Amino acid sequence: MVEVVAALLVRGERFLACQRPAHKARGLMWEFVGGKVETGESPEQALRRECREELGVRLDVGPEFFQVRHVYPDIEVHLRLFRALLDDCEPQRLEHNALRWLRPEEIDGFAFCPADEAILARLKQGLPQGPGSGLPQTERLTLREMTEADLPALRRILQDPAVMTAYEGPFSEAETRAWLEKQRRRYEETGCGLWAVTLRGTGEMIGQCGLTRQDIGAAEPVWEVGYLFQRAFWHRGYATEAARACRDWAFSALRLPRLYSIIRDNNLPSQAVARRNGMAVVDRFVKHYRGVEMPHLLFAVDAPPRA
Question: Over the stretch 192-212, which tens digit does the pLDDT of each residue have?
C-alpha cells in the first residue's frame, strides 16, 4: 500500500485539476495535485513538498476532506485529500500537461484517474465551504461568473460611449463577444476574472467587477480589481461596494499581500472608487491600447496583518 496525499484547492466556484504527463502511468488523465508520502514525512509535509515541486507554490494545508483506497494494476494506493490554500502564489505547469480550474458540473467532461471517482462524486454535490470558496457578495449585490446569457447586459456596458470613454469609445459586437470569451477563459485559467454583478432579489446584471492578472512591466503580473457598470446604475455606490467585496475576498481567498487597480489618468470616477477602496497611487505608466498611448495611474492597497 502506497500512501499518497493530494490537495483540494478551491477558488470561488471552481477547484484545481491537473492533467498527468503523457509519459507517466495513467498519462493525460486528470487528478488532484499531490504525490507519494516519503519516509519520515508527515502527510502535510509531503503535500507541501509535492505542490512546491509540481506547481511551484507555497501551501497552507487545512483539514482532511476525503480518503480512499484504490487498487490499480500496477499499484495500490491510500489517497488522502486535504483542503488547502495557495499562499500568495499562482500555480505553474512545472510537471503536468495542463492545469484547469473546473466547476463541479464540468467534471464529467474530463477523464480523471479512477482513484478519484468517489471524491468527484462528492464534489458534484457541491464544493466544501471555507476559505476560498464562493464568490464575493454584499448586502445588495451578488457576484457570479458571466455566461452567454449575459451578452445583452454586457452590451449595455461595453457598447455605451459614456461608459467606455476611458477605452477610447464603445466596443463593437465582435469586441464585446471577445471580452466575454476572455473572462470565461480567465475563469478556467485562474479561477477568477471579471464577474457579473447582479442585484439581490431581482438577479439583474448591472455591471461587472472582479479580479484579473495584469502585466504592468514588473517581474510578474499583478492582481487587479476592476469594475465597469451600466450608466443607469451609476452614483448609487454599487461600484465601491463590489470593489470592496472583491478586495476583501482577494486578501482572504488568494492571500494577497497587495491588490492593485490600473486606471486611466482622466478617469476620475474610477479613481474615486479606488480611493474609497483604501487605495493610493503608487506608480504611473503608459499603456498602448486601440492605437492610443494612454497614461495610467497604478493604485494599490495592502492587506491587513494576518491574525
Answer: 999 999 999 999 999 999 999
* Burial group, residue 206, by CB count within 10 angstroms (0-12, 13-18, 19+): buried
> How many CA within 13 A on the CB side of residue 231?
11
Sign of the dihedral through C-alpha 290, 293, 297, 303: positive
Determine the Cα–Cα distance for residues 212 and 15; give it in Å rounded to an integer: 17
Strand 76-86 to strand 2-11: parallel, antiparallel, or no bridges (unpaired)?
parallel
Instruction: Judge if pTM exceeds 0.70.
Output: yes
Instruction: Spell out the domains of the chain, with CATH numbers in brackets.
Output: 2-123 (3.90.79.10), 141-302 (3.40.630.30)
CA distances from 68 to 4, 84, 116, 130, 202 (A): 10, 18, 8, 22, 43
- Which residues in the chain land under pLDDT 50? none
- Cβ atoms of 20 and 95 closer than 8 Å: no
